[in-house]
Request: fold
Amino acid sequence: MGQKTNPIGLRIPLNKDWRSRWYASKSEFSKLLVEDAKIRQFLKTKLESASVPRINIERAGARCRVTILTARPGLVIGRKGAEIDKMKEELSKMTNKEVYVEIQEIKKPEMNAQLVAENIAQQLERRVAFRRAMKKSIQTVMDAGAQGVKIRCSGRLGGAELARSENYHEGRVPLHTLRANIDYGFAEAKTLYGKIGVKCWVCTGDMVEMKQASQQAPIKG
Reply:
């Protein structure tokens, strides 16, 4: 049996959440879906250097709330919030709706699978050796406190004539264990000899263990 299920999609009923939260009728659904894709594409392009792994969208009536998760909130907010105000205006023009923008900081960017994959893709674009980039990223993730990490690069690695896949992993990454909190990220490196796909899986522990740890944590008072 193929193991090609997206780990985030598989765990949505248990410990993951949807990236878009809204309800629409059949006639409106397709329009809003395309609108979500345009918003994400616009923000990803605009905030390319701000380390944005995830954009959540919530809708209620004619209002739209966009939550940007970023490792560099200062870059997104700008001086005295100027960048956010510009972003709101541009999104409002694009969607013809009232748009609210929220910023959430990612506390541990080293353990975010999407950011790890994007970092490797950027290194490959700068012509860093793929093995070196992958091994260095694995070491950084494990040092940050992850239980396990797996990275796969596919394409014309090192400019080779034939495309191939290379895998590196360390620790435990139980993809079939649903209680395991596994983060997944995918990025593409646009190199001179074609695109190279980078996939990353990061295991940060089991949900049961994390709950127990939070219950046993001492209360500060």
